[in-house]
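User: Okay, second chain of the day. Same drill as before: sequence in, structure tokens out.
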Amino acid sequence: MSPASREPVQKFFTSQRIQISYWDWGNEDAPPLVLVHGGKDHARSWDRVAEGLRDDYHVVALDLRGHGDSEWSVGGNYGLPDNGLDVLRMIETVGSPARVLAHSYGGSVCLLTAGTFPEHFTSLAVLEGTHSLNPKEPPEMGPAWVRKWGDNLRKFEDSTPRVYSDLAAAEERVREANPRLPESFTPHLTEYAARPVGGDEGGYVWKYDWWVNGRTSMEIRRDELPRFWEAITCPVLLLFARETRVNQRTDAGTFIKNSRTAYIEDAGHWLHHDQLEATLAQVKPFFAEPA
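Assistant: Same drill. Structure tokens below.
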């Protein structure tokens, strides 16, 4: 990519027989930096962050399986380990070890991956990603656990996506989800999050696979996550909004050997959208520290 070009290039790789889409901002001679989005999101939600980091790093952002332009997982396997292997392949594709910046569910994925494959991480910054979608006190593995998972997953068999009449209607839904979003950035987020549907009536639906909510019968449970955090060896920056969600583990740093925790003021769950400059002011010096 030419240094003068500011638009990222879309590329693909294969992980677990699934085609994964990612976007590359160039600067290939610089250290690699991988961006990992959260649930129901997409790689191009990182555009403003990538612009702020691309001069110093070879920045890439993947669409997690079942999101954006990546393929869906047949059968609906969307657990933390499944996504973790995709992130690992992304790191290997761009050059291991790498710096990684992740948000929300992507942060949970990367914390688990960094504990399982620590040699592939130079450093890891996580924005509001120390939570889990699993019950706070899950039952022991057995028939009751698998039945609960199975009953939940089977509900998706008959589900149909909501169709929005046009992109403007979809944009309105995005604004409802995060009223703090910069108004000028909402159309961009929506453009890459939605796709047109066929048929006479037309309209738009979200790109992500609704089955990502189903997880997997062997999902890592919430009380097991600290075991992975304790195995992380790279430096970790945990960033939270001062108005953080109640299900965030703000004490996660106590389990990580080399970590620090910071808070962003006047922001909600989407720190990098709500307070871009304040987020970059934390992330830039962290990634600039010697490995």
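The radius of gyration is 18 Å.

User: Thanks, on to the next one.
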